[in-house]
Amino acid sequence: MPGVLGRIVQERAGDYAAASPELGPARPAARRFEAALSGPGLALIAEVKRASPSQGAIAPLDPATAARAYETGGAAAISVLTEPRHFDGNLQALHDVIGAVGLPVLRKDFVVHPAMLREAAEWGASAALLMVSVLGEATGAYLEMAHHLGLDALVEVHDEAELDVALKAEARIIGVNNRDLTTLNIDLAVSPRLIRLARQRGFAGVLVAESGYRTPDQIAEIRPLADAVLVGSSLAGSGDLGTAARQLMTP
């Protein structure tokens, strides 16, 4: 796996190399994250994001304070980065956000081991990110693990081949990432194209546009197509998270 994505995946695999793969007992499916994205209009998943490989340090956010601001600004759900080296995230941030807001919370990380899903469930997350670019044909197995733990899963794709994998795995929530994680380049045409293709192929679940959204005009282009949009860097670096979230999503 090339580029930044390959390096992060190798690091996370090393972090969890000694972890137990045991999931523990099955948990009931609450589907809070899915429900939050399924209402009328375009839902916002606002991200607590302190840094990224493409931008470096973004803002020294306090996770709980940031999440409360996003909730006030109208977010339907909160995404929390827990990858430590490149995104300045950690599990404590996840815990703090879950304790601070009443919204469903997504653990966003590079899931490469069942223990990462078990952690998400134990810490109270409603959902976890599963990246087809990372998991490949194992996506279906990890989706089953997430559902065993009562978690929703945001199954992320970037191209048509990855979309095929997500559809075959019977994902309920598919996210389309405009960012190529090997080059870090963004193409806002990716989400509209793959979202249309998913619908053409009969996908009736939730579709999320991800990465690169900074203006209401960009949101307007995706609004008729997607059920939700995930926004991180532009909100996190805004200085006024609640106001930025509200203004970004105003039609």
UniProtKB/TrEMBL annotation:
GO terms for biological process: L-tryptophan biosynthetic process. It is an enzyme of class 4 (lyase). Keywords: Amino-acid biosynthesis, Aromatic amino acid biosynthesis, Decarboxylase, Lyase, Tryptophan biosynthesis. It comes from the Bacteria. It catalyses: 1-(2-carboxyphenylamino)-1-deoxy-D-ribulose 5-phosphate + H(+) = (1S,2R)-1-C-(indol-3-yl)glycerol 3-phosphate + CO2 + H2O. One of its GO terms (molecular function) is phosphoribosylanthranilate isomerase activity. The keyword Zinc does not apply. Pathway: Amino-acid biosynthesis; L-tryptophan biosynthesis; L-tryptophan from chorismate: step 4/5. Its EC number is 4.1.1.48. Residues 28-248 form the Indole-3-glycerol phosphate synthase domain. NCBIfam families: PRK00278.2-3 (NF001376). This is indole-3-glycerol-phosphate synthase. It comes from Deinococcus marmoris.
